[in-house]
Every structure is written in structure tokens, then in C-alpha cells.
Amino acid sequence: MNNTARSFAYVEPTIVSLLILSSFIYLLNIARSIAHRLFYAGLVGEILVGIIYAAPLSNILKTEWEQTILDFGYLGLLLLVFEGGLETRLDFLAVKSNLFLSSVIGFTGILTPIESFAMGASLSATSLDTTFAILSSQCKYQLNKSRMGTSLVGAALLDDISRLVIASVIEKLRYLRQQNLPWLISKLIVSSIVMIIISV
């Protein structure tokens, strides 16, 4: 058995690669600043730069670069959601008026896009991480600690839970018999509600 471990070979990056990566990082910051000044949502500028540089349009970034950026982005996403969970005033959701407002916003996001089951699964999320990113970018107003911010977080949480339930049902639908479907749906909903109660 061959136990020789292969080491990662150092290859000096080309000038073109360095220019592409540095321009990508630079334009991310510029686009974020411009979008923040125009409509207070710097995340939109970053998304546009990503669309331009990645495979859908110009395909400037290499596939392995995109995978690395995706991995780092996922790590950043976890940290962002963790930070948002620490800073959000979930005790505001205990107030009936705030809970009602969150439910109305959340159910609007769930029910409006569902024209078909599969489309509803992909479009029914407000995206908790996007909500946290936009609220945290307005740090001087402390929106994440306001009634509006808490209502938006509650709505995004409700949307994401429903999307996960729908996506799980769609994924396992072909393997399930009809009598097991209610058990699967109720198990997902109950576990999500228990996690929310424990968190609050």
C-alpha cells in the first residue's frame, strides 16, 4: 500500500488572475457603497457584481474560485445568522401585536408565490440571512432592535421554516407512501416550533 502523501504544489498566480481577483474584491466594495447610498441596501450591489463576474454572464471567475468563494460565503452566512440571532430582540415577538404583524408578513411571503408546489418551495423564503444582512447594514438606526426589525426577522423565520418543510416534503415525496406524508409534515413543523420556543 502506497502511503506517500501528496503535498499541495505552490504555483505563482498569473498577473491576469491577480487582476481579476483584486478587481472583483474592489468592485464588491464599490458596488456595496453605491447601492447603500442609493437605496440603503448594499447587498444588492454585491449580488450584481457576483452575477456579472460569475458563470451566468461573463464567466470571468474560474470554477474553483467560485467554489472557494462559496465556501467562505457560507461560513460568513453562518456567522451573520449567529450575530443576528444574538442581537435580535425576540422578546418583542412575545407581544401579540408584533407576533400578528410578523405572521401577516410571513404568510404573505408564503402564500403569494405558491402557484405550484415546486415553485412555492423555491420562492417562499424571505431569507433570514438576507434580512439580517440588510438590517445590520443600517447599524446607526439599530433596526434589528426595533419593532419593525423584529417583525421582519420573525416573518423571515416563519418563511424559512415553511420553505424547509415544503422542500423536505417535495424531496421525500417520491419515496413515501400516502399514509406517511402527514407524519413527515407534522414532524417537521413540530420540531421547528419546539426549536423556536427553546430559542426564545
UniProtKB/TrEMBL annotation:
Keywords: Antiport, Ion transport, Membrane, Sodium, Sodium transport, Transmembrane, Transmembrane helix, Transport. This is Cation/H+ exchanger transmembrane domain-containing protein. It comes from the Eukaryota. GO terms for molecular function: antiporter activity. Gene3D superfamilies: 1.20.1530.20. The chain crosses the membrane at residues 14-31, 38-56, 68-86, 93-111, 181-199. It comes from Rotaria sordida. Residues 28-198 form the Cation/H+ exchanger transmembrane domain. Pfam families: Na_H_Exchanger. It is a multi-pass membrane protein. It is found in: Membrane. The keyword Protein biosynthesis does not apply. Its main location: membrane. GO terms for cellular component: membrane. Signal peptide: none annotated. GO terms for biological process: proton transmembrane transport; sodium ion transport.
